[in-house]
């Protein structure tokens, strides 16, 4: 059941593993953001160097303040999160330096998905989260669509198909909103 799946995924993450997870947009691969070896594993799984950033995933807006410098009103964060958006903010010193070492910014996700929220709350610190696909390929809405990645994962959580598999819009992933500059925001990637 649900609770067992959360517990198994949290245990795999805390052992340094990569876990495939359902989110509110597409399937993702998560690891502990503060675990440098796991972060390197995610970069190699994606076939990308550290230059293309990973998002962090948290269970609650309150936890965001520890890992980011927030210069927008709390109400704005709560209007957008949880939801299918990635907010780009200035990172704090708390965040692992090996995560996205080339940028002072970090994308933050609080998915509107009960499994992901429970999993994020069950783990110490943030999760690093990326889509479950190789960088140049399309996003995935079922676990079978990324079965070529399974051998590199500790665990695959099958949450069933996400959204409408026939609809190309469903494969867009989250909308990315840059809130890192006070008083300005820009949409980097519509989702």
Automatic annotation (TrEMBL):
It is an enzyme of class 2 (transferase). GO terms for molecular function: double-stranded RNA binding; L-threonylcarbamoyladenylate synthase; tRNA binding. Residues 3-191 form the YrdC-like domain. The keyword Transmembrane helix does not apply. It is a peripheral membrane protein. InterPro entries: DHBP_synth_RibB-like_a/b_dom, Sua5-like_dom, TC-AMP_synthase_SUA5. It is found in: Cell membrane; Cytoplasm; Mitochondrion. One of its GO terms (biological process) is regulation of translational fidelity. It comes from the Eukaryota. The keyword Mitochondrion applies. Residues 1-20 form the signal peptide. It catalyses: L-threonine + hydrogencarbonate + ATP = L-threonylcarbamoyladenylate + diphosphate + H2O. One of its GO terms (cellular component) is plasma membrane. Its EC number is 2.7.7.87. Keywords: Cell membrane, Cytoplasm, Membrane, Mitochondrion, Signal, Transferase, Transit peptide. Its main location: membrane. Cytoplasmic and mitochondrial threonylcarbamoyl-AMP synthase required for the formation of a threonylcarbamoyl group on adenosine at position 37 (t(6)A37) in tRNAs that read codons beginning with adenine. Catalyzes the conversion of L-threonine, HCO(3)(-)/CO(2) and ATP to give threonylcarbamoyl-AMP (TC-AMP) as the acyladenylate intermediate, with the release of diphosphate. Participates in t(6)A37 formation in cytoplasmic and mitochondrial tRNAs. May regulate the activity of some transporters. Interacts with RSC1A1. Belongs to the SUA5 family. This is Threonylcarbamoyl-AMP synthase. The gene is Yrdc.
């Amino acid at each position: 059941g649900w609770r067992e799946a959360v517990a198994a995924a949290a245990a795999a993450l805390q052992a340094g593993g990569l876990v495939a997870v359902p989110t509110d947009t597409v399937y993702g691969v998560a690891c502990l953001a503060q675990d440098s070896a796991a972060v390197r594993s995610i970069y190699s799984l994606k076939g990308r160097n550290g230059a293309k950033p990973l998002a962090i995933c948290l269970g609650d807006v309150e936890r965001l303040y520890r890992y980011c410098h927030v210069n927008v009103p709390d109400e704005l964060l709560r209007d957008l999160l949880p939801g299918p958006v990635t907010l780009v903010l200035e990172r704090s010193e708390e965040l692992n330096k090996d995560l996205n070492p080339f940028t002072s910014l970090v994308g933050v996700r609080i998915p509107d998905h009960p499994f992901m929220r429970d999993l994020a709350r069950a783990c110490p610190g943030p999760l690093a989260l990326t889509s479950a696909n190789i960088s140049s390929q399309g996003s995935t809405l079922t676990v079978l669509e990324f079965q070529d990645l399974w051998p590199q994962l500790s665990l695959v959580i099958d949450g069933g198909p996400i959204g409408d598999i026939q609809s190309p819009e469903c494969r867009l992933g989250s909308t990315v909103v840059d809130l890192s500059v006070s008083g300005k925001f820009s949409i980097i990637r519509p989702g």
